[in-house]
Amino acid sequence: MNNLKDFSNLLRRDFSEIGNVPSLAVGVSGGPDSLALVRLLSDWSCEAKGPEIHALTVDHGLRPESGAEALRTGEIIKGWPRVLHEVLRWESVRPATRLQEEARAARYALMAGYCAEHSIGHLFLAHHRDDQAETVLFRLAKGSGLDGLAGIRPRRPYGENLLLCRPLLEVSKAALVAVCKDRGIAYAQDPTNENQSHARPRLRAAREILEAEGLTAKRLTVTARRLARASVALDQIAEKSLLDLMIKLDTDYTVLNFELLRGLPEEIALRVVLKAIDQVSPAKSYPSRLERVEDLLCDLLSAAPFRKRTLGGIIFEHDEGSKAFVLRKESLALLPG
């Protein structure tokens, strides 16, 4: 990855549109991964006469030295061509539980807010091949399905006007460290990366054993990419199937052809039901676990009559008269006519 041509090819493959935008943002923590990404973007932008780069460091204030570390990151990249640095501070009240999860959510929200204020539509992040491998292992341990095992995606929307961009998913951490060393970039190490009380550092330690058996980060990344390809295809089929099955669509309820739904392959039927749930209650607010939707689908596809039930604030029922499968908000007292 020391070769700028290799990095330019990665951008051209997955993010060809960014050569025509005035500015983009990149999250930078002061570690080798994100500093290497900022430097590579800087070099690329100079060569391509590309966009201005807003390097964003979030100071969570969780450690006494975090403020000074954020400023030090700005000193490291000061003077890099086409790069501006900004420190964003998390100033809300700290939660009593799930601190790491809330800090992560705050980090993304702060960077997204900055991007909205500056009309930036692309936020680059330095997740790399080792992160991808750990994500696949973590999700495998949690029993994830195909979509989860497809790992981190190179492109993912965040809200309506921001795209999260991860161009380094096929690049090893060692290659990014080499970028910093070759360019004399003084990077810092995050102490939480070695904290064995967190799941990811434990998985990182276990990877040495797995790699000895051939389960390398490269192989896991290739597997994730192939699963992602299959996931996209299945999702496109499910999207078309949903349109074919749709009898009525409303913000409060959705009606599908029950017999046609039961005739679909199970994976497609599951995706159709999940998409229908999204129509009635957006996925971001839908609390039910996938296992509960799978149980619902199992009953739906069985020969026995489907029992009316409520799940996650949505009522699911089979209207035998019209042969319709109805999803409606629990707050609606009566089935709309």
Task: Produce the secondary structure layout.
Elements: H1 4-14, E1 23-27, H2 32-48, E2 52-59, H3 66-77, E3 83-89, H4 99-117, E4 122-124, H5 129-141, H6 146-149, E5 155-158, E6 162-165, H7 173-182, H8 199-212, H9 217-245, E7 246-249, E8 253-257, H10 258-262, H11 266-280, H12 290-301, E9 309-311, E10 314-319, E11 324-329
Parallel strand pairs: 1-2, 1-4, 2-3, 4-6
Antiparallel strand pairs: 5-6, 7-8, 8-11, 9-10, 10-11
Helix pairs in contact: 2-7, 5-8, 5-9, 9-11, 11-12
Structure description:
The chain is an alpha/beta fold. It folds into two domains: 4-128 and 150-195, HUPs (Rossmann fold, 3-Layer(aba) Sandwich); 250-329. It contains twelve helices and eleven strands. It has helices spanning 4-14, 32-48, 66-77, 99-117, 129-141, 146-149, 173-182, 199-212, 217-245, 258-262, 266-280, 290-301; strands spanning 23-27, 52-59, 83-89, 122-124, 155-158, 162-165, 246-249, 253-257, 309-311, 314-319, 324-329. The strands form two sheets. It has a six-stranded mixed beta sheet, sandwiched between helices. It has a five-stranded antiparallel beta sheet with strand order 7-8-11-10-9. Helix 3 links the parallel strand 2 and strand 3 (83-89). Helix 2 crosses helix 7 (173-182), helix 5 packs across helix 8 (199-212) and helix 9 packs across helix 11. The longest helix is centred in the C-terminal third of the chain and has 29 residues, at 217-245. The protein starts with a helix and ends in an 8-residue tail after the last strand.
